[in-house]
Hints:
mainly alpha, single chain
Amino acid sequence: MLPGSFLYGVAVLMLTAHLPSGYVPAAQSHWVLSFLLHWTFVLELGIWALALYLWRKRSRI
């Protein structure tokens, strides 16, 4: 199976289904606040900003 194939993804899910996903306690009173104030959300916004910048730069050429 190739890493990009659908069956590869299914196999990975089947092999990792037994692993514990872990428990993360809420840092804020509401889950939305916990999501928005988490450092990974800032990283996600940075990735989107870079993608938008590169897309706009490429479309001008």
